[in-house]
Design brief:
about 160 residues; alpha+beta; 3-stranded antiparallel β-sheet; about 15% strand; globular; binds iron/sulfur cluster
């Protein structure tokens, strides 16, 4: 529809993931209003979708503030912080440079079919890890996932 909705984990070659939640929208159906991830919610007839509202701005603002703690200098996050008036210093810095969007892991699995990356642990301890045996033979000649990272300085447009 040509309506811009922010996203950090969507890629046109990958299955919808609903990881970053920055694409949250308000959906009004059957008298109920819900906040859902736009990327994983199927479009339906007779549904009202709000892509911008005060509530959505607050949600996006809080999400961006949390992610900035991991990658405070990410140009993508800084731009979103400006758009949603996010406080770049709200949360204590923990510069892992990973916001768990899963783009690299999913790209390697779904597009390259190499499985050179994976998630390990859960919750606050969750992180991304190369599988050394595969990465050592595949990554040097590929590097396709590198520019997908939202915290990379060399990020390419996703669409
Ligand atoms: S660079 Fe390595 S981890 Fe990234 S997509 Fe290519 S094979 Fe997978």
């Amino acid at each position: 529809m040509g309506i811009a909705i922010p996203t950090l984990c969507h890629h046109h070659k990958l299955e919808p993931y609903g990881g970053c939640r920055v694409c949250s929208v308000e959906v009004e159906a059957n008298g109920r209003t819900m906040v859902v991830a736009a990327c994983t919610y199927p479009a339906e007839k007779n549904v009202v979708v709000r892509t911008r509202s005060e509530k959505l701005s607050r949600i996006r603002q809080a999400l961006v503030e949390m992610m900035l703690a991991h990658a405070p200098d990410s140009e993508t996050l800084v731009a979103l912080a400006e758009e949603y008036c996010a406080d770049r210093e709200r949360f204590k810095r923990n510069q892992s440079f990973c916001i768990h969007c899963g783009l690299c892991v999913r790209y390697c699995t779904e597009v390259k079919k190499k499985n050179a990356l994976g998630f390990i642990d859960r919750g606050a301890k969750k992180r991304i890890c190369f599988i050394p045996k595969i990465a050592a033979t595949e990554c040097w000649k590929c590097r396709e996932c590198f520019p997908l990272c939202p915290t990379s300085r060399y990020r390419l447009p996703l669409f």
